[in-house]
Amino acid sequence: MPEINSEMHYIRRNSPGFPGRFEGISGSPEGLYVIGELPRDDQPTVGIVGARMCSRYGHETAYEFGRVLAGKGVQIISGLALGIDCYAQEGALAGGGKTFAVLGCGADICYPKSNREVYEKIKTSGGILSEEKPGTPPLAYNFPKRNRIISALSDIVLVVEAKEKSGSLITVDFALEQGKTVYAVPGRVCDLLSYGCNSLIAQGAGIACSPASILMELESQRTLSEAARRSRKKRNEEIRRERNEKRTSADSEAEAHGKTADLSGLSGEARAVYDLLDRDPVPLDVLFRRTGLQPGTLASALYELQTKGLADECGRNHFIRR
After folding, report:
1. What are 226-239's pLDDT values in tens digits?
2. What whole-number distance in Å separates Cα of residue 68 and Cα of residue 73?
């Protein structure tokens, strides 16, 4: 084993304490060199990535997402690179939370050197992680492969700014292969730095209009068991198929005759959400603002409506009344 300094430890795959999020992930590292601590499996975790040469908008957005999410107990994962990575991790530190930097060089090497202050702070407010041996220089081919570790350790991967062929999209590819949820911050259509994010949204990524979007998604992931999520997906597919196969006049006739849904037995929260739904999709952010419900309560209300056949999820985080 390579020489390890006093502040660093090495944890092998399958050893006690090795992150459980790597389980079942293709290409799991053989082990990790760690300065500080590893992210906890029982805490929500968000990977924030984006352009190195980011705009002022990207800088402020990454910092704010990192600050707010970390302040709510969300662990922030990134790569300590210039731009979005470092700003998100600075925000996490300012929010008083934990942040973890996955490096493409040895964990004992701060790269880039200009991020030394953040690197030192992360040692005591999270951890510095690398699969590379101590002393390994920042070689170009190590950085794309470290992105699979960022995505594997994350429940959600958030892209703040990215060009059409940004390296951040490599992290997105890994996240999708690993079955992780991807969100993107929208930007102006004329900005090259927003092209990658806007393209991801067009392809079905979640829209991160505020940190609340991410908090609600994390709460939904926590509230709904894997079995419930599979059941919901299957039901939504059946509903969409039925809607496409028979757009009969029966529905229109029923509406014309004033047929109403059976709302008996609904909780007050579910009824409040139902009253805001329509035939046109309503974004989750809008429901959150208009109801004033906490993320967990809103997720439970939507689940109640779906299980009673009163609402459908139409696309990611958009809901309609049945």
Report:
1. 555 566 556 656 65
2. 9
Question: Do you find a cis peptide bond into 112, omega within 30 degrees of 0?
Answer: yes
Residue type, 89: Q
- Residue type for 143, please? F
In this structure, what is the dihedral angle of CA atoms 315, 212, 321, 261, given to the nearest 10 degrees?
150
Question: Residue range 163-171: average pLDDT?
Answer: 87
With beta carbons less than 8 A apart as the criterion, state whether 136 and 108 touch. Answer: no
Dist CA 35 CA 102 (whole Å):
11
pLDDT of the residue at 95: 97
Judged on CB neighbours under 10 Å (0-12, 13-18, 19+), 247 is: exposed
Reported as a single tens digit per residue, the pLDDT across 107-119 is 999 999 999 999 9
Q: Is residue 94 over pLDDT 90?
A: yes
DSSP assignments along 140-198, one per residue: TTHHHHHHHHHHHT-SEEEE----TT-THHHHHHHHHHTT-EEEE----TT-HHHHHHH
Place of tokens 């530190």: 93
Q: Please, are residues 148 and 174 in contact by the beta-carbon 8 Å criterion?
A: yes
